[in-house]
Amino acid sequence: MTAGLACGSATAQPSTVPSATQPSAVAADSPVPASISSTQALTNARPSADGSVLTGAAPGSPRALTVTVHSAAMNVPIRLEVLPAPDRSRPAPTVYLLNGIDGGADGNWINRTDIAHFFADKQVTVVVPFGGASSYFTDWRTDDPALGRQRWTTFLTEELPPIIDSGFDGDGRNAIIGISMAGTSVFQLALAAPGLYQAIGSYSGCARTSDPPGQLIVDAVVGGGRGNTVNMWGPPTDPAWAANDPYLHADRLRGTAIYVSTGTGLPGPLDTLDGPGIRSSPAKLADQILVGGALETGAVRCARDLRTRLTELAVPATFDMRPTGTHSWGYWQEDLHRSWPVFARALGL
C-alpha cells in the first residue's frame, strides 16, 4: 500500500488498518500437510438438511485439502479448497473466500495469493469454493442455457456451513470475503442469511445492482459468461433486482462487521513489470492498467456511494479507499492482510 492511503469508517470514525507485506504472485509454501486428514473430514462431516454431502477429500495445495461436496440444490459436485485450522484440539471459526467472475478457473485465492502462509498461524478454517462463474453466487429463478442451474445462495448459506462445521470442527462463527463480482455477493449472502456471518469483506466490489449503472455492471458480468440476467432476476424492471440490491437494504447489515476496499483505477505500486502476476510481460501489465484500471473506476464509485449510504444510516463499517491501484490480485492480497484485524475481532480471535 502507498503511504497516502485514505481510509475511514461509515460513521466518520477513523479506522486503524495495519500495513501489509509486499504480496507475491503465488504463495511459496513448502508442502506442509493439512492439520485434518482427508479420512477424518470424510468421517466427521454430516449431510446438510437437504441431503448435500461431502463426497470426497484428498490432499491438495499446501496445508489444504481438496474437498468435493455434492450440492442437492444444484445437483452437481462442488470443489472446495479447505485450509483447516492449525489447532485440532479446539473448534474454530470459518472464513469463506469467494473467487471472482471466472469462479476461480484462472486466478483464485489459492494460486494468486499467500493464504496458505497467511492463515498458517490463525485459528480459523479457510474455505475457497470453486465454480459459479458469472453467477453472482445467487439463486437464479430458472436454469440458464449457458450457465445451467445456479443455486449458490442456497449452497453457501444452507448446504455448506453445516458440512464444514461438522467435518472441520467449526464453532458456528463465520466470515465471508469476496473480490470483484463476489464483492457484491457477500452483501447479498449476508442479507439472505441474517446472523450467519459475523463479518463480510468486499474487495473491489459493487453494492449497487438495481440502478442503471449497477444493472450495466451486472449485465456485463453475467453476459461475460454468456448468461442471461433474465434467468437470474428477471427483466430490468422486475422487483427481484431491487430485492437483491444491498445498497437499498443496507440497514439490515447492522450488527455485521463490514470491510470495503477499493483503489481508484490509477496505476499504483503493484502495477509494474515486476508486480504480482505480471512476470515482466508488457502485455499483461497493459491489460492490468487499462482493463483493471477501468474496472476499479467503477468499483470506487460504488464504494463511495455505499459509504455515504451507511453513514446516513449510522451503520458502522470500515472503508479502505486507496488513492491508486487496479482491479487485480496483488491489491486483494494486501486487502486481506490489512482487513484481517476487523475479521479477527468479529470472530472473537
From TrEMBL:
One of its GO terms (molecular function) is acyltransferase activity, transferring groups other than amino-acyl groups. Gene3D superfamilies: alpha/beta hydrolase. It comes from Nocardia nova. Residues 1-57 are annotated as: Disordered. Residues 23-38 have a biased composition (Low complexity). Residues 10-22 have a biased composition (Polar residues). InterPro entries: AB_hydrolase_fold (IPR029058), Esterase-like (IPR000801), Mycobacterial_A85_antigen (IPR050583). This is Esterase. SUPFAM superfamilies: alpha/beta-Hydrolases (SSF53474). It holds the Pfam family Esterase. It comes from the Bacteria.
